[in-house]
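Supplementary material to the annual report.
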Amino acid sequence: MAHRVDNEYDYLFKIVLIGDSGVGKSNILSRFTRNEFCLESKSTIGVEFATRTLQIEGKTIKAQIWDTAGQERYRAITSAYYRGAVGALLVYDITKKQTFENIQRWLRELRDHADSNIVIMMVGNKSDLNHLRSVPEEDGQALAEKEGLSFLETSALEALNVEKAFQTILKDIHQIISKKALAAQEAAGSGPPTQGTTINVTDSAVNTKRGCCSS
Amino acid sequence: MEEMTISKGNRHNSEGTGVLPRAEIVHDEHPLSLGKTSVWNQFFQESETVEQIDRDVKRTHPEMQFFNGDSSDALSNQESLKRILTIFAKLNPGIRYVQGMNEVLAPLYYVFKNDPEENNAESAEPDAFFCFVELLSGFRDNFCKQLDNSVVGIRSTISKLSQLLKRHDEELWRHLEVVTKVNPQFYAFRWITLLLTQEFKFRDCIHIWDALLGDPEGPQATLLRICCAMLILVRRRLLAGDFTANLKLLQSYPPTNIDHLLHIANKLRGPIPY
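Predicted assembly:
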């Protein structure tokens, strides 16, 4: 999907931000990519796009992040944006129980439209509003464990854990891809790649409809 | 599946011989019923709509004191916007409220409310409501998920824009859609659904809407021509850009001389391609 012009990164990972309307997806994105936060930001219509390049385990990773509208009406449109995504941040608002209850709906949405190997991280946002909390952190943790997702509570306002959330998911994706590449090389009989060998997984892993772990 | 289970359970209740006669509670009146005629289901859906409207009205032009802040004027304007959107949602059960309608309503309400004639300004709410209904009668299909894949839905409108660009600037069209693979949905979806209200400063948006609403070709055709002109206006940057650069440019369109933009749009007249 992405047209690669510059070669200043080793991998390009497409990540989608999903979750109910008003949980703070856009602010998580702006905090991560521009270190900005806007208390009353406009609602997202369709999709918004941003990138940031960072170092993960010695590799230069370009994270291409797609922020999607939360409302039901936009699901049909946003499903096209799951194409090629290797990671998803599934966001709820710790002060709004309904947004947590809808996590299951979003997981179903991902199962229907995204690659089956997509790496999913669940994020409970607005942890700065602890006095208004209606979803205990343990509940988030428990659901994440049950569904096999990684989990963090974040505050885009206080810049708490946002960086860590992206670092975690990007690291997870990178590890899967490295293992995949290694396995592919071994299967091809060429042994593990020596230092300096270029592992050409970017095209198949990121730029096609299939995700990082599809074989 | 769920509905079947519920109706089964219901039948069981009505046949039961318990102390309380449950037979009178018909399926649709059950508080957990998902049936369309269920008053409870309607109640829950409505409160969801009202919550969504409330959330979005608070996020309408947060940079403008007219719409935002704690002043009594701002609060009263917000109440007006909420009432208009809620009544529209009730009168149009097929669409109800869709995010973004607040952005389409805002310029109308703003203009009426700032009428120098005090008498007129007082009627800003009903006037804006009337014009909002009128305006959406031409654009409501864009908000309707069920029509997404039909000839009147948003996807078809977007492909008309794509055809228009191809006809007027094939080189740019090819670079955008074939070479850099920028799907027009990624930017034009918002341009078209919101009638460009999130792409420009509010003042510029009013300027564009003057052309949009005053053009004898009608707002739909005019909107597509203006969108096409927006692409042509930044063609040099687009032709030099890759996927990322182009998408970023089109998702945050640079400040523009609006007269010039409208001048270019004016030169693109002709039948809309299909």
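Residues 79 and 113 of chain A are 6 Å apart (CA to CA).
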